[in-house]
Specification:
Helices cover about 50% and strands about 15% of the residues. The protein is globular, with a radius of gyration of 15 Å. The chain has a single domain, classed as Rossmann fold (3-Layer(aba) Sandwich), CATH 3.40.50.1010. The termini are close together. A six-stranded mixed beta sheet has the order 3-2-1-4-6-5, sandwiched between helices. It is an alpha/beta fold. The chain has eight helices and six strands.
Length: about 150
């Protein structure tokens, strides 16, 4: 394995938005979605979030994990080195067939995210918008591995 410069490491530390479908799949089924969550927790990707998305994540996670595990998820969704929180007023984009998914687009554009990783076909069908690419977990992991050399 080759050593990377700090600049190369920063380039490989991408801002992304995870759609709630990936969080649910990581808890319920593992697989590529779980690999995405592990990549985030390891600090290889940075989540871009706002309060609305965190509220949705926690609402859904609460249905899937034991009550005593919820504080761990709250910790991760607020961890200052693992998430970028967008607090400013967001421009509202109307690009998804499911209007409830537009909040992920709003945050991705405002937070300069490179990707929205999702299992949701309404978002995947967009392909790319304002420099944000929409990929499934497997496709993102493949691209990340190719670009990071591992």
């Amino acid at each position: 394995m080759t050593r990377r410069s700090r600049k190369q490491e920063r380039l490989l530390h991408w801002n992304i938005v995870l759609n709630t479908s990936v969080i649910v799949a990581s808890i319920g089924w593992g697989g590529y979605a779980d690999q995405m969550v592990n990549l985030w927790k390891a600090g290889r990707i940075q989540l871009v979030l706002n309060d609305e998305i965190v509220d949705e994540y926690l609402d859904v996670v609460a249905r899937w994990v034991p009550e005593e595990a919820l504080p761990d998820w709250q910790f991760w969704f607020s961890h200052p080195t693992k998430v970028t929180r967008i607090h400013s007023h967001l421009r509202k984009w109307n690009v998804s067939r499911d209007v409830t998914d537009n909040k992920f687009v709003d945050v991705a554009v405002a937070g300069d995210a490179k990707y929205i990783v999702t299992r949701d076909n309404d978002l995947l069908s967009i392909g790319e918008f304002r420099g944000v690419r929409f990929l499934g977990p497997k496709e993102f992991l493949t691209e990340h591995a190719e670009l990071s050399g591992g």
